[in-house]
Amino acid sequence: MDASHIRHGRAADAAALARIDHDTWSTLHAVTPRPAAAEPFFDRHAPEDHLVAEDADGTVLGYIRITPPSRLACNQHVRQIQGLAVAAEARGRGTGRALLRAACAEARRQGAVRITLRVLGHNAPARALYASEGFAVEGVLPGEFWLAGRYVDDVMMGRALS
After folding, report:
1. φ, ψ at 140 (rounded to 5°)
2. What percent of the chain has pLDDT over 70?
3. How far is 96 from 117, CA to CA, in rounded Å?
């Protein structure tokens, strides 16, 4: 995946991103119910809160959502990743890593000095990706979620953007 294929989200991406969210949904990474295939994608977050990965032909392959963690002025120096999804056909090609790196670069561009995220404790592939990109575990909420018949930890990770 070439980073030049990462761009800001657009309203026209809604259907493709909703499809990816629906098709990739799993209790490995999601705590909310599976979204309906036709559910509006840009309901709480604007297109510009997303970076989108696309193939050379314009096919949308995935997205990452980055936002301030709150509206409070005292933590506007932080950005938070609040979603990352890669279509099945793009997995194993570096798309997730490219999106993660682009999110860190975009957060820096926005003036952030730190970036954080939350990941489910049993999501070993995502945790390994984040750790390989410099994210460290900063806290754990043990058994925070009941998913697929078991308690799952909520793991907070973060890193400096220097």
Report:
1. -135, 130
2. 98
3. 14
Stated length of the chain: 162
| CA–CA separation, 39 and 33 (whole Å) | 12
Bridge partners of 43, per DSSP, are none
Question: What is this structure's pTM?
Answer: 0.93
**Amino acid identity, position 42:** F
The pLDDT assigned to 78 comes to 98
CA 75, 76, 82, 83 dihedral sign is negative
Q: Which residues pair with 120 in a beta bridge?
A: 154
Return the closest-CA partner of residue 30 out of 82, 93, 98, 94: 82
Instruction: Say if residues 43 and 108 touch (Cβ distance below 8 Å).
Output: no
Residue 34: other Cβ atoms inside 10 A:
14
Give per-residue pLDDT as tens, 94-109.
999 999 999 999 999 9
Give me the residues paired with residue 52 across strands: 7, 63
Burial of 144 (0-12, 13-18, 19+ CB in 10 A): middle
